[in-house]
Amino acid sequence: MKLRETDCQSTFVESGPCEGEAKSKFAPPAGGGPATPPCPPQPALERSEGADTTLSKPQKCQTALGYTFKDVSFLESALIHTSCKLEYNGSNERLEFMGDAILGMVISEHLYKAFPEYCEGELTRIKSVVVSQTILARVGDRLNLGEYVVVGKGLPERKNFPRSLIANVFEAIISAIYLDGGLSAVRDFVVSQLGEEIARVCHSEHEGNYKSLLQQHCQKHLGTTPHYRLIHQHGPEHGKTFEVAVIIKDTEYCHGKGKSKKQAEQLAAEATYRELTQQKTVASS
Question: Is 96 a catalytic residue?
């Protein structure tokens, strides 16, 4: 394969087309039409100084991804933006469509197995951030996907690609890996690429949520789950104050007071969490 310049900034085509428009490697076999005349010798393609004249983008991209395709055409399709769609080379939109669903499934499965103590609402909030355009574009930038995507000349320079474009290419690559290597391969890829983001989002999600922090601490170090007991409530219906205590293994720990049970539970959990973690710190010193 040779690299020819067309209306796209770069693309992957078979060597030898006689006309100015690139011949797609996915074009249907000739048949039923007039015989194609022999191609005249093609002059060397002029490029600006420092330009990459080798057809190495798929190979470089595979190295960046940490995955080697058995059928590299899946990757090539994933890298073709709709602005550079050829007659027989569809863009990566269909792959992006499926990649979005595969990504959601893999992340949901991973969160479900990794965080058995999280409720449905917590898992949903974490997933929505992890699969967001912002996160996917950040991962795509880390993989330098902008260097490998094939786009039309009407788009801005590679360093200024829209965030949505990079995120969509990442989703298309997820589909390509799934089609090439199956669910196990794409699961490994997604978790390896998004693992740090998942950890960061989980930390942010539960920072300040002391009920969640206390629950994780108790399950990890005490093998149990804390409970909350309403000790007292007073005041008029429109302005009650609630007092709640934390109960761990039938032992009563700190109390919290608030204008709602939820607020009182958070305050009680915060006091108890700080007490337990301080004890653990003193014990280990």
Answer: no
